[in-house]
Amino acid sequence: MQLAQLDDWRRFLKEGDDYLGTAVHAAVKRREVFTPEILYNLAAMAIEKHLMALLMFHGDLADNHTMLDMVRSVERHLPLDPGLRERLLFLDGFQEICDLATYRRKPPSEAELAIILRTAEEVRNFVAARLGRRQ
Fold first, then answer.
1. In whole angstroms, what is the distance from residue 107 CA to residue 88 CA?
2. Tens digit of each residue's pLDDT (9 = 90 or more) over 5-30
3. d(C-alpha 119, C-alpha 36), whole Å
4. Which of 120, 64, 62 is nearest to 91 (CA)?
5. Which residues contact 37 (CB under 8 A, 6 or more apart)?
6. Rounded to an integer, what distance in angstroms lies between the CA atom of residue 14 and that of residue 82?
7. H helix or E strand, kind and range, residue 50
8. How many other β-carbons are positioned within 10 Å of the β-carbon of residue 15?
9. Burial 48-84 (b: 16+ CB within 10 A, else e)
């Protein structure tokens, strides 16, 4: 079956770049304002927007918006490096916000935050390479 690109994939790509840029800049220069929890959320939004851009480029949408759902959706089209896959799934351990009965949040440590930001950059580069863009 031939799938058609969904129109807004470029907007999602730009929004992902913007979220990631904010997270990286804030992690270096604005730590008094941007807590680890806020930086986690900015990085997670960057990852989600980048992966959604890739999926939309392939005419698809994610089944849901946990990292596991995003990973499974991307893997319908492209294989993920096992290490990147593992790091993406690691992000699901910080928040469970989809179900009010199991709602929980865990702020990342500084070491975990460094992994999260590197993962967000790795996702951006993965997506850019598949969309023929250089970062």
1. 16
2. 678 899 999 999 999 999 999 999 88
3. 15
4. 120
5. 105, 107, 108
6. 26
7. helix 36-57
8. 18
9. bbbbbbbbbbbebebeeebbeebbebbeeeeebeeeb
